[in-house]
Amino acid sequence: LDIGMDGTTQALSALRFAPLQCMFWGHPVSSGLAAIDVFISAVAMEGADAARRYSERLHLLPGLGLGCSTPPSALPRQAAGARGAPVRLVCAQSIYKLLPQHDALFARVLAAAPTARLELTPGALPPLRERLLARMRPVFEAHGVDFQHRVLVHPRLAEDAFGRVLDDADLVLDSIGWSGGQTSLEALARDVPVLTLPGAGLRSRHSMAFVDTLGLAHDLLASDVDDYVARAVALARDADTRQALAAAIGARKALLFDSRAALLGLQDFLWQA
After folding, report:
1. Residue 212, Cβ neighbours under 10 Å: how many?
2. pTM of the full structure
């Protein structure tokens, strides 16, 4: 299911156990291993030149390449908060997706959207969380943003507490370079808009595929870093547009879940292989 998230799996994957060995995109990069024959990805998540990014033969499943059920914890979108309440921007990604070069991006958003607050859920142990805070604080303060009062970096959260953070979010800001996968689905299941900036490779294109499947690429797909900041600021300032996007997601999100197309595509691949 993935190669690269666990050292033991990585080592075993270098060995030949079967005539045909395939991997999925739980860790969304090529293994680089001669023992892995096929990388199974998804049509909606790959670009035209995708094959050159893999040492394996690339096989694309239909659509999103997955058929997950709607997360049972997902709730219908709640009514918007009171006018004048802080707008809750959430980047719900793990610490290894929060890269130093993007600290200024988030700081720029808060500087231009003074009613917004940023919440992060890095899932890190306390020493790493403290290092993250120490790294980010001077960048935000250099942009005139009061880090202490406008940025909340959560400690490690249990699943239900993490779900409540998404429940209360007004807008999810996707990580750049390695986008949300399951996390973005969790947000969209709650009718929360996800703003994303795709890159060239699979690792940065999960949220793009979800947004595009919903027909909301025009609203939630940024073209570059400056466009990402501009869109985030505009959405943070415009409650009506956020509510319209939430309604559109609610009406269309069934397109993301309970699809049998990928299952049948995998069945066909295995039969032919």
Report:
1. 19
2. 0.92
